[in-house]
Amino acid sequence: MIKAIIARCKQGHRTTRYPKEPVLLPERFRGYPVLNGRACPADCRLCADACPLGAVTRAPELSVDLGKCIFCPECVQACPHGGISYSRDARLAANRREELVVREGEEHRLARALDAKMLSLFGRSLKFRSVVAGGCNACEADSNVLSTIGWDIGRFGIQFVASPRHADALWVTGPVTENMREALMMTYEAIPAPKLVVACGACAINGGPFQGSPEAHDGVQGMLPVDLYIPGCPPHPVTILDGLLRLLGKMA
Amino acid sequence: MKNALLLTQNGSALPRREIPGHGGDRFAEALLAALSGGWRVVSYFGVPEAASLRLYCLLSYKTHGTLGVMSTEVTGRNFPSLTPLAPQLHLFEREMAEQFDLVFDGHPWPKPVRFQRPFASPPGVLPTLPERVGVMDFYRVAGDEVHEVAVGPVHAGIIEPGHFRFQCFGEEVLHLEISLGYQHRGIEQMVLGRPCDRTLKCMETVAGDTTIGHGTAYAMVVEALSGARVPARAQAIRGIALELERLANHTGDLGAIAGDVGYLPTASFCGRIRGDFLNLSAELCGSRFGRGLLLPGGVSFDVGGELALRLRKRIAVAREEVANAVELLWDSPSVMARLEGTGAVSEKDALELGLVGPAARGSGLNRDIRRDHPFGIYSMSQLPVQTAKSGDVYARTLVRWLEIVKSLDFIEEQLAQLPGVAIQYPVGQVGGELMAVALTEGWRGEICHVALTDARGQFRRYKITDPSFHNWSGLAMALRGGQISDFPLCNKSFNLSYCGFDL
Lengths: 252, 503
Hints:
The structure holds two protein chains of two kinds. Helix content of chain A is 25%, strand content 15%.
């Protein structure tokens, strides 16, 4: 017992202070893209051609679809002109699918809070039921990490619960494999209304590396109404936390 | 044996026409002789040909660091099952039966593996449509007071889906059957054709917590097929990344095991320290899971002197903190009482089922690809293999801890002496009519990738064998005669991949 207490003192209090203080991200972290189409020679398609998932578009203007992007370094490495790069800004979540498309010159759209009625229901307590529908255990791992002492999302009234009947919202990861489609829909049905849906990660939003697979459904699109999209492959825990706090109006 | 197998090495490519093809009887005879002579099956899979199916068997002979391969042609729908004589083949045969509409005569357990549509069917056979996922003929125990418990596919936490069917007498588990396939994304079919960047992205997510393990195997396959070389510095960085992946996952597992026996100090500390190791991977390449680090021919990011120094400092801190957190386990009799004797798998069962990784080493099997078939940096710098005898949750916990210490040593050693300058060499065209074999030791154990190319250098078949493919049967065995309430603990002590199995 005494050893455990000494260890407790040694390990210290290590919960992130986010959102009061920023989270220090590594130098090579790839977050919100920075587009500089003026640097692009006419007809240059190097970035778009390098993107393995068709997230980068050159015409009519340079844009990146964060719903398809897996934040790999390919486009940046392919571009010799400095037209595209990633910032360390990890705030990526959005409320609507089309808001995930980043175009040059547009302002950075952040996720907005739920409406007043929904906020009165879920603002202080939001319980999620997770369904992994083909996820590779990376989105899952970095969703799980939010419940560890490093992040402690319980502080904000957010919790992952063991039954859809106890839940307010569905947490979907993975490209929705055909073999999980039914279980996903049954879980959604089992959550009492009103309910929310979060699509966490590139797979759940658009299929990720598995878009077009005959065994999967390119994510939840057309299957479930999504209230929050969290891009990334997988999203960094701070991206997830930031999105959730914005959804709950806690980032004023 | 010499004539039956074509011998090769880890990370090599060989012309397909040189692979010996035997008649069915000779193939079976040679395979069984090899197994009784100390060889072990690493992969066994089918490749459709014009009007038939060719089965390839890849074997390992660890004391010589040698791999052997042979094949046989199946023209009809039936092939004799060798599972009754060699249990380690059981799932490979079931997989081939499902993928190619074959019937393995005499297989004791002919059930679906992933509930997928067949890749191909024998001539004249209509493709068998899969049953609804999870619907199969589960083994049942009958009798008064015997009851059945069904769990999944959706589990209570943020966990991948799978179905578990327990046959119980009171609290005692008489039998556990595990039915998977829910995560099937069709990777092996998706990556056919010319290897490209997209292929690499699929490989990085075969099992997303093993990005470096699977990514390295894929890179080795492409390098073997194209005759590319990899700079020494890149090999060292790959090794550092692979050991960081092991550290993060082993630390997380030790925390999860502590959590499942209700010992919260270690659970809390390890949950956080795991994140510290993931953050070190992010220092390497921007991603906590090592995404974007690897590419055929080398790595995308260098580790300069300043970064190496920073990593070494953080590794030293993490070493102290993880030791502090884990030592509490060994000092707590209530924890030891829960770990010792729970979920034991005997050495004999582990050997017969062909277990790999920490699960095998916990049951006393001394096998580790890093030493037995060394690849990349491990050809130069060895890690001592850690084993334990008892085969229980305690043994699997202990092996993980011992491996954490060795991985920390290894990383510190590599960071102190990164060789050379180059981190990438160019990769040429993938050669035609070749077979390439790559094995790595991921944190769960042996990962095997095999690629066969056609005349134009496109993948005709890509076979992935995740360690979980070997080890799920080990978990089922661990539960026999145990308490159903011990399932979560046993499950954590294996911590297997669902998507790596389902592909």
